[in-house]
Amino acid sequence: MARPGDSSQEVRIEGYLDRARHTYGSLEDPDFRFASGARVEDTHAELLATLSRLVKVTNMSDENDHVCFVLELREGPREWSLRLSMVGPYAMLLRVTRGWPRRFRILSVEVIEEPAAGTEQAIAELVREAGFTMVSAEDAEYPVRFNASGTEPVDGPLYRVLFSTIPAGVEDLSWHCRH
To answer: 13: helix, coil or strand?
Structure first.
């Protein structure tokens, strides 16, 4: 995890936080209404249609836990999770490896920084062409102060601000978990 003080990273982080402040109104007392009733089919129909020609797309979004759309992408045995932030034009593409029984046991999740050739690279390019900035694991892990619980701000990863409303400590960053 990068430490505060890396100037190029700090510039990126400040850009993410400026957008988040605009969307939430405040990071200390955020207003989550922007996510209420949002549907990926309404906001990203063209990207969904394009992705659907390439891979099987399943919407796994849960507005109670996330401020992003969570799309499961599958091509045969290969699987990815695409997170499209509602906070701003930010995305994360995760490679999912499952065990047996396949649908119920996740072995690992890995943030894709450099897409493999073929389908994975095509997915990343389509997401970028749709106007999204791919957020790196390093930036997603950057510590920021945010009030996701409605009580008081606490330190946690930038991921919480851009993609998930689950309070710090409840949801670990899935790419650090090996099951």
So the answer is: helix
